[in-house]
Design brief:
By secondary structure, this protein is an alpha/beta fold. It has one domain: Ribokinase (UDP-N-acetylmuramoyl-L-alanine:D-glutamate ligase, 3-Layer(aba) Sandwich). 43% of the residues lie in helices and 17% in strands. It contains 11 helices and 12 strands. A 10-stranded mixed sheet has the order 1-11-10-9-8-7-6-3-4-5, sandwiched between helices. Helix 9 runs antiparallel to helix 10 and helix 10 crosses helix 11. The longest helix is centred in the last third of the chain and has 23 residues. The radius of gyration is 17 Å and the shape is globular. The protein starts with a strand and ends with a strand. 52% of the residues are buried.
Length: 288
Amino acid sequence: MIKNIQAATVKTFIPPRKTTSRKGENGTVLVVGGSYMYHGAPILASMAALRAGSDLVYTCVPKINVVSTRAHSPNLIVIPLVDAKLTRGAARKLVGIIPKELDSATIGMGLGIQDREALRMLIRDLLDRAVMVSLDASALVPEVLHDIKDKNVTVTPHAGEFRRLFGEDPPSEMRKRAELVRRHARENGVTVLLKGPTDVISDGERTFLNVKNLASMTVGGTGDVLSGIVASMLSKNRKPVEAASAAAYVNGRAGAMAQRKHGFHIVATDLLEFLPDAMKPFDRTSGK
């Protein structure tokens, strides 16, 4: 069954924050991305994860991006990749130094990948640690499908990345589009969040539509913000279709607020500004 995402449903997908919780218990996230050209993508994702309520975000970027990333915000905990791109050596060193208590990780935004086997190594290691993984951008390659099948992994492609990953173009007609997403999600044992004017999210069983129709959100970086929110939601809710649906809704809500203020002239950092307001309807606490 296909359902439109509603605020009331999203509220059930975002767990309450415990009043007795301590640092780290509201989500510890790893972001792996960036390259010589795309230094901003992992910053956007990391700040989005923090704004969406995660306690700790570790931002892993190539060593050439470390200074600029650290300079952006003191809120970021930056881990250098030892190479300019993701290599097998860089992947091995990274898995040796990342915190053991990670809840979720998002990989791929702006990431330069020297060797796709290095990407597979990193994904497998995180999954072996029971980390909730989401993949975006350059991490969306068909070589990873075997490693992520039936492992509760989330993929967040736009239409072109969907074609590269699954070998089919999403049709424009929405019911056919939703059915294609549902089929590939079921066949590959993953949760798919196909980005577009209407986002389609499915795990092969449940399928949700997030209607945005925001002409301003074609600007670069809004997908990186979404990746950070997905990772944040996964750190709290280990049901990927629920976490991804909540993230898509919150991202769209922040985009709508930004568009109301700036018209068609928004930039991705505007979404970060409005994320707290977009999250407020879902903020609640629990004593347990």
